[in-house]
Model the fold of this input.
Amino acid sequence: MNELELIRRIAARAPGRGLALGIGDDCAVYRPRGGVDLLFTTDMMIEDVHFRRETHPAEAVGWKTLARGLSDIAAMGGTPRFCLLSLAVAPWVDQRWIDRFYGGFLRLARKYGVALAGGDLAHAERVACDIVVCGSVARGKALRRDGARAGDHIYVSGRLGGSALGLATGAGAAWKKHLKPEPRIALGRFVREKLRATACMDLSDGLSLDLYRLCLASGVAAELTGPIPTFRGATLEQALDGGEDYELLFTVRPRTEVPRSFDGLPLARIGTIRKGRPGLVEFEGCPLPPRGYDHFRRGGRG
Amino acid sequence: MNELELIRRIAARAPGRGLALGIGDDCAVYRPRGGVDLLFTTDMMIEDVHFRRETHPAEAVGWKTLARGLSDIAAMGGTPRFCLLSLAVAPWVDQRWIDRFYGGFLRLARKYGVALAGGDLAHAERVACDIVVCGSVARGKALRRDGARAGDHIYVSGRLGGSALGLATGAGAAWKKHLKPEPRIALGRFVREKLRATACMDLSDGLSLDLYRLCLASGVAAELTGPIPTFRGATLEQALDGGEDYELLFTVRPRTEVPRSFDGLPLARIGTIRKGRPGLVEFEGCPLPPRGYDHFRRGGRG
Done:
């Protein structure tokens, strides 16, 4: 199968709703509506870094490639619109793997009404995917990570450490959470529109590192007063430092009434924003080191 | 150097003009102007596929990564606005290589006023870059490849085969053309606004394959009547089948007056669009097989 045939095959399966021009030309064309800001995020998935051929089914690799990008759109309170996918395939990849990869990818795309606008195809030693997702949000309303203020309450969605536990055990609900994270799109909009959050981000690299980043961006410190909602069977360390949970971390003004759950997903207060050295996070009276996953410092997570 | 430090370092050097929010949050934010369509294109550059560590200077890899995306914006007659860059670095990459890579990348970005809106960083076995470029064009005015009609005249810019010659010889002006192609942004706008081209695309994979694609998209055939403008020292085969020239291929209505050059760049008529089997290209009375570079069928170009 050559490039043209593969592109035709992908284009035939890809939803193109919302695009003025989809796959097949030099560029895709998107016609933005008035009064919106557009959100852009990009994420790589690389064989032997973010996933392994032996353990990660092709469908899950496709799903997760898109889920990571959608999670960033959720973190800004946006609605995903379209995406572009670059895929470099390794010599071991066959047509069946590619079909399953796109199967998982497009299943998630359809679920959230995200058009696949285009991409690039290449060969490489190892599989490498790169996703760009575009979302939209009412003008000036994107949820940033730099708006937290002293006194704000800190919340997280869901239960943390599931993905790290799943990666360690390769079984059960935790493994499923690791393989097919659910982007918190509806929650992101709720947090922005109804809770009027002061800051928000998604937990991609672990609570300790991501909260450090939020505090650094906002020029504030944080005190974790717990309890940290922990995935069943996960250790506290996995909940604090484990990456890839893709839950939302957000701060609200202290008088904001936050429900205990949203659409069945628990929302838990875990602490308070304080004045102090920007980025300092205290837990049980001690500084919590930002030990979450740093893609660049370490060689791999998988 | 960790991810946060590297991102800070890149952000400090990156032009952010035109963005509502640049590098550092979950997403970049772009506020589109009214009355425009947005163009999106994505391209990968992979070590040992698109470039080699031993022969391609880091600065040229950075330049070319962006140039390939800008060339797609030029092909639609658009103006580039911003880009996102994902970079996976191999174990052999040091800080100096990264600095030079971004040096070449950002030099070209500044030249065309393109903001670097964000990206992703990772480690991998081999260097892999993926670029997304967003451009804008007046609503409904993007130059597509599916508008060529029987009787239209076919034109190319520049002289073809230079990049293929440069790759073969590794020296002189042809090597420079291979390493640092110049995206034809101003020409693309001229072709769209003044010549009212019926179709346009950039020559990334070789004239024979790219003209085949243009004809296929437009549902027409083509007759090459030559002469094919050939880079000094390149063979006719390199001019017909060599990739990565990043010149523009476009068609205009037969009465359109096309100047012999634009801003010093030659524009040459090479043939005529005909009725016939879609995609059929004839050259000197015989069908010309689409032999240009197919990224997906073959293992590499380097």
Observations:
- Chain A has two domains: 3-138, 153-287.
- DSSP finds eight helices and 13 strands in chain A.
